[in-house]
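1st attempt posting a full record on here, be nice pls
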Amino acid sequence: MSEFSIPYCYETHYTEDVFAPANDVLWRALQGVGAAPVRVFFVVEEELLQFYPGLPAAIAGYCRAHADVVRLAAAPLLQAGGEHCKDIAVSLRLCEAFLAARLCRQSCVVIVGGGALLDVAGFAAAIFHRGLRQLRIPTTALSQCDSGVGVKNGVNFLGKKNLLGCFAPPLAVINDAAFLRTLPVAMVSAAAAEAVKVAMIKDREFFAWLTAQAPAIMAGDLAALSALVRRSAEIHERHIATNGDPFEYGSARPLDFGHWSAHKLEMLSEQRLSHGVAVGMGMLIDCRYAVLKGILAIDAYASLRTLLRSFALPFAGAVLELRDDAGRRLVMAGLEEFREHLGGQLHITLPTAIGAKVEVTAIDDARMNEAMDLVLRDE
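the predicted structure (as tokens):
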């Protein structure tokens, strides 16, 4: 029998203006990759140039200022972001670019963008040469507080969200608060959905803080938004590091609270529903179901509903009413897909109170449909 273990360790850094020449966070994070200077390939979300047209030049200037540590392997590659970029064809095109830049196992791919780009570029890095180091610089509040600090990479395939993917911990994560300054309100709301998610099942005090700070966050208070990002990211990181199952070989995935329906709703809407809106809907559905099952008090559900509304997260009922020829809601197929995704055993996280949870292994379809009806009627 062969037995070995590999310790994983990566740090999330919090900074501002990461590409300012005087900022040492990036080049220090790259130390130890290989012999200096490290060859680095940047994948940058194209949409960022609307707000930061000088970003590629800033990246090049940073590398020149630290040429003893960092060397550009090629000019930064611009790639459109958003959920539509999570396609195997995009990953393969990125691999072609890595090959053209002659990246090797001593190189590093730095990904600058939102969660979808982190997913697709991280997947490409993980499969190229059996795995290049990747360093993530998330640029949305959602990716800074959730997916950007995790260990998963993936693309959508055959109409299924994240059907192809892998676990590949990053070399480091750098959360740059400067990127939060220009976020549209919808992206702030999306991050709030994931923050509410972890608060609802893990942290009652954080839930109370979100309730108090929601008006300031939605009014553009950068300090409050940065605090939301950091607290949510810390909860996600602690769960990954301490739950004993970072690569999800088991079935219970509490941080996917609200996600069985959210993932299906996103796909049914052909990505017209944002991830944040879908997660907000998923949480309301599951919590209303928990009330019907006697697991959760109605007052806790009402508090969740009020908080989601304060973050301007709508409930888009039309996609929930899509049905098959037999009259069954199409979203209900998400339960079976979620079970398959978990490896055969269904585990759904349901709150028992704000900040507390339970795992259930079976769902009453009739009660779940009733829960959806009640949420649609705002009851």
